[in-house]
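TODO from last week: model N-acetylglutamate synthase.
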Amino acid sequence: MIDLNNKKFIALQNSENGEVSQQTCFHYFQQGKMIWAEYGGGEIAKGFLIGKWINETHIEFTYQHLNKKLENRLGRCVTLFQYTEQSKLLGIERWQWLDTLEKGESQIIEIE
């Protein structure tokens, strides 16, 4: 299991129906198998996610945010973490909005 505590990520790419962009920053925290994060930037005013490690490389979580239009959006996601050649964490995400049931994929990369 990878330690996500106090790690920061930005989006590398996202599906067109997603709201996360390269201006969105995620700040992760971890206690044991429990993970959570705060995020914001770009079209997202403020967001939170909470979930858990489901195996050595995958987390699952639910997320909720307010976008710049003050719309409350929520969904669920499973993320696979792996290391890049530069020893940065890369997250490959498969997510689904819970209000529209649309699905998408995104990638996040560790910064700092």
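Done. Residues 12-19+55-112 form one domain.
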